[in-house]
Amino acid sequence: MTNCFSIPSALQLNAIPAFNDNYIWVLHNTEQAVVVDPGDAQPVLAFLAQHQLQLTTILITHHHKDHVGGISQLLQHWPATTVYGPAQESIPLRTQAVHDQDKIQLAALGCELEVLSVPGHTAGHVAYFGRSDQGEPFLFCGDTLFSGGCGRLFEGTATQMLASLNKLTALPPQTLVCCAHEYTLSNLNWALEVEPNNSDLHDYYQQAAALRAAQQPTLPSTIGLELRINPFLRTHIPAVQLSASNYCSGRASNDSEVFAQLREWKNNA
Ligand code: ZN
Ligand code: FE
């Protein structure tokens, strides 16, 4: 039902599928668990029961229903759970409001998280960057970065979103990217229109298609991979600029404008 991605340490990272295409990420050891953006409580409760885990922490990236809808039911079962969420958004039952650069100690799991403010999809969206007890970096980015794509601009501007994505791409290339939706194949179909000559993109498409055919998640991705295949992270590449300007029948004069052209194109794809 879920895939299990082992970081080489006592920690494990799992993607619990929810709704049509959401993933609720769980970071856990053999006893305690942290869940990210539980839009639905049922699949999380089932996972915790199956693995005999105690829920200690909920991390929320933004206020959309498919990310916060399960909080109250989880708290009914686990009332001592700490709920972290962005200070600038209204998050139901949040107990800790977080700001850019805040540090969160997950003492039981032996790791520390850093909060990154990444506005664009929503105005107060945050991401959580951490390292396992062995130092392996991972990122919970909600609906900001997807594999091969990025979130729609519901409450922010192209300039804001590009700045947010640049913050994420400055993280180590091996960082595991834990996105909140399985949008990879549809993103890659579009990315291949943008960059038909990108051989890394063709290779990755084949891998991702095989994973989906086997009903496996394509995630987590890595920052290094996304830099090679994700058009929204490649606004500085001439081939991407040319495709974007052809689609929009006009040359962009900076990376933000290229980004806006790509976002427009993807919205209509
Ligand atoms: Zn969202
Ligand atoms: Fe979402």
Structure description:
- With 269 residues, this protein is of the alpha/beta class.
- It has a single domain (3-267), classed as Metallo-beta-lactamase, Chain A (4-Layer Sandwich), CATH 3.60.15.
- The chain is 33% helix and 26% strand.
- It is built from nine helices and 15 strands.
- The chain has helices at residues 42-50, 65-68, 71-77, 158-169, 184-194, 199-213, 223-229, 238-248, 255-268; strands at residues 3-6, 12-18, 22-28, 32-36, 54-59, 82-86, 96-98, 103-106, 111-117, 126-131, 137-142, 145-146, 149-150, 176-179, 221-222.
- It has a seven-stranded mixed β-sheet with strand order 1-2-3-4-5-6-7, with helices on one face.
- Strand 1 (3-6) and strand 2 form a beta hairpin.
- Helix 5 runs antiparallel to helix 6 (199-213) and helix 8 (238-248) crosses helix 9 (255-268).
- It starts with a strand and ends with a helix.
- The mean pLDDT is 96.
- The chain binds zinc ion and fe (iii) ion.
- Zinc ion is lined by residues 62, 64, 121, 143.
How far is it from the N-terminal to the C-terminal residue, by CA? 31 Å
CATH superfamily: Ribonuclease Z/Hydroxyacylglutathione hydrolase-like
Small-molecule components bound: zinc ion, fe (iii) ion
Tell me, rounded to a whole number, the average pLDDT: 96
Number of helices: 9
- Strand segment tally: 15
Strand order of the largest sheet: 1-2-3-4-5-6-7
- The number of distinct structural domains comes to 1
- Percentage of residues assigned to helices: 25-40%
CATH C-level class is: Alpha Beta
CATH architecture: 4-Layer Sandwich
The outline comes out as globular
Q: Report the portion of residues in β strands.
A: 25-35%
- Structural class call reads alpha/beta
